[in-house]
Predict the 3D structure of the following.
Amino acid sequence: MMLIPMVTGVEVTFWICAVLAILGAVGLVTFRKPVYSALCLALVMISLAVIYASLGAPFLFAVQIIVYTGAILMLFLFVIMLVGVASEDSVTETLKGHRVAVAIAGLGVLVLLVLAVAQGVHGTPVGVDSANTSAGGNVQGLADLIFSRYVIAFESTAALLITAAVAAMVLAHPELIKKKAGQTQMAAARLQAYARDGVDPGPRPSSGIFARHNSIATPALLPDGTIAQESVSKVLADRVGLRSVDELWGPHDEVLAAIETAGEEPLDVEDLDWDDDETAPGELEPADDHVVDETADEPAPGEPDTTDDQNESEESHADAVAETPADEEKRND
Amino acid sequence: MTSLYAILAVILFTIGLVGFLVRRNALVIFMCVELMLNAANLLFVAFSSHWGILDGQVAAFFVMVVAAAEVVIGLSIIVMISRSRRSTSVDNEIVLKG
């Protein structure tokens, strides 16, 4: 401590924060990803806040942290996430000699500013402590000034802020090209489509629930045994393709055949094309659904398998009921 | 000591200016403007401390208020442009030319 007698806490704060602020500012300009730039700006702002605190401006320290780092910078990050976080700036120069010109301009401005600001620095620093204590504190001193000498400016900031809020709402609000259709209009349109083109006005059927497949890509079957085209989303139908009726009925027929043969002769599990070797023959007859379920591990190519099963479980009851007539009809065949 | 703060403020302002001129992403350009405003604020607070009067801090406070309003407007303009143009690069704003 005795070796560096002239160093005060304010100076230590200044040197640490100045280095951090300049590093942050350089990073802000050089990083190509806007998110990194925003975080560098946060570093600069926090460093400046600490410098404000060391300069006897605790109110500005708090406002800098709350308003700048907390609100403005988070707004920046929010917009960055909104417009695409992955975007990177290209490094190609679109204007010839752009960077050189900018470097010269930057140097010129630096020299001019140093000269201009140097004119203002003269006399010995007084320090703001006396002003703070004479007003009873930094916040009280600022309040005295804002609500007396600068009250007009303060009132106009109120108008400025409300204008900004309204303007942001007006600017960010997307204009509707045409009026949004309400429930009444949609119902009328649906019935008109029914009257004109015979489009079914009711809700679309949900996807098929079978022992082997209940993903949303599985079509439901109509009472006559054909596939209900509407029951699968058009996107999925285009991508995966609808299953054929025979493929859906395949396991069902297999089990039926197995039950029928079991009535005539002792059932041989090996004859059936199942992977489940541990199943005893006796278990097969009452609960065929369960056994078929065990072998349902072969999804169609590209079919979203297990995850969809969870989503569909809610609708399975309604569909099971809907399937019953078709089931019985098939059994009778 | 005040001259050190002034030099720091001038350096930050210059870096902000260079970034404003070099970068082409509207968001980063906007951040550089904020950096310049912060440099000016630092100078306000440093000189407030130098002369021992609080008016500089009041000025810095007003700068912050104006900056907040400015950021709200500017960012909503950027969001609006990026919504229609799918980009925040200022090079594309040449399409605004009449």
